[in-house]
């Protein structure tokens, strides 16, 4: 597969329009799969690309999230709201309207529009203007519906409650970085806002009340280990020394409830020395998870800034 092929959208791989209905996408996938299947003399690389495209577009939730990561149709140039920047100053985009009709906070870009475009490390302005980048990790051989559901719910929270409150926040899904001994460090989601980067994991637990002891969530004496983010946090802090990296875990049950499950903290569990991981805040259910994220991202330096170099580094590490 050529370098140009690697940058085609899933729609382009299957040869359908972005507004194609599910039946049209399914027909296009079947035709492309027959055409590219190695057993029929097709190119294995092309067949893998077709299979990946179907993984994204063949599932309604995955397709919705993927569509959010794409530029708006026709967005081939810098948004008019960004305008031209005066030398030495970052340009602000046109103020958006808040949920109550009040002017929202403006977004600044560094480098400002019109500067740094020839620097390969700087993400171009159309993509820097996107709120969402990436797509969930491709499914493995065995089905993992819990992972799909966890990621969908967490992404929905990040978009509705974090990105909407912080216009400069950029949500990334499917971040991967090589760890020690070449072992990949996968992170479900990350949010860049100003000079802060939040890495996000999630865990689904049965209904009930839980106690957080600094390393595990426990219910009736049975432990539930949240995802370990410490290694990824340390690795990304080395890659991006100019930002502060934090770690957060969204805890949920089968029932989509923002307030559940109930998590109590054991005495001393919140002391830094008691924590087994480097999490910035203890694992938390929906609304508390959102509050912790907003506190971390919104109180950092320049929360209205989109650093296009840092964002470019992150986008390059999407799987």
Automatic annotation (TrEMBL):
<dbReference type="GO" id="GO:0071218">
    <property type="term" value="P:cellular response to misfolded protein"/>
</dbReference>
<protein>
    <recommendedName>
        <fullName>J domain-containing protein</fullName>
    </recommendedName>
</protein>
<dbReference type="InterPro" id="IPR018253">
    <property type="entry name" value="DnaJ_domain_CS"/>
</dbReference>
<dbReference type="InterPro" id="IPR036869">
    <property type="entry name" value="J_dom_sf"/>
</dbReference>
<dbReference type="Pfam" id="PF00226">
    <property type="entry name" value="DnaJ"/>
</dbReference>
<feature type="domain" description="J">
    <location>
        <begin position="9"/>
        <end position="70"/>
    </location>
</feature>
<feature type="region of interest" description="Disordered">
    <location>
        <begin position="72"/>
        <end position="118"/>
    </location>
</feature>
<dbReference type="GO" id="GO:0030544">
    <property type="term" value="F:Hsp70 protein binding"/>
</dbReference>
<dbReference type="InterPro" id="IPR051100">
    <property type="entry name" value="DnaJ_subfamily_B/C"/>
</dbReference>
<feature type="compositionally biased region" description="Low complexity">
    <location>
        <begin position="72"/>
        <end position="104"/>
    </location>
</feature>
<dbReference type="InterPro" id="IPR001623">
    <property type="entry name" value="DnaJ_domain"/>
</dbReference>
């Amino acid at each position: 597969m050529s370098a140009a092929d690697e940058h085609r959208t899933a729609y382009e791989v299957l040869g359908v329009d972005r507004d194609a209905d599910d039946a049209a996408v399914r027909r296009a996938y079947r035709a492309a799969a027959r055409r590219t299947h190695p057993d029929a003399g097709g190119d294995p690389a092309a067949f893998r690309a077709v299979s990946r495209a179907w993984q994204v577009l063949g599932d309604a939730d995955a397709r919705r999230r993927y569509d959010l990561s794409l530029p708006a149709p026709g967005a081939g140039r810098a948004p008019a709201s960004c305008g031209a920047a005066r030398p030495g100053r970052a340009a602000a985009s046109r103020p958006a309207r808040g949920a109550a009709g009040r002017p929202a906070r403006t977004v600044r870009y560094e480098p400002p529009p019109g500067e740094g475009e020839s620097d390969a490390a700087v993400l171009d302005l159309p993509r820097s203007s996107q709120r969402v980048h990436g797509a969930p990790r491709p499914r493995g051989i065995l089905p993992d519906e819990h992972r799909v559901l966890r990621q969908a719910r967490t992404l929905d929270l990040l978009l509705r409650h974090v990105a909407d409150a912080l216009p400069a926040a950029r949500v990334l899904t499917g971040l991967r970085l090589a760890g020690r001994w070449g072992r990949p460090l996968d992170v479900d989601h990350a949010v860049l806002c100003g000079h802060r980067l939040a890495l996000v994991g999630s865990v689904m637990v049965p209904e009930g009340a839980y106690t957080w002891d600094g390393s595990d969530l426990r219910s009736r004496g049975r432990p539930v280990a949240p995802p370990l983010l410490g290694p990824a946090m340390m690795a990304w802090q080395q890659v991006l020394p100019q930002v502060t990296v934090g770690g957060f875990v969204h805890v949920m049950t089968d029932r989509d409830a923002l307030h559940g499950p109930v998590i109590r903290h054991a005495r001393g569990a919140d002391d830094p020395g008691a924590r087994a991981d480097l999490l910035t805040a203890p694992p938390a259910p929906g609304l508390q998870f959102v509050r912790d994220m907003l506190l971390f991202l919104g109180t950092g330096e320049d929360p209205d800034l989109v650093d296009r170099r840092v964002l470019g580094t992150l986008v390059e590490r999407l799987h």
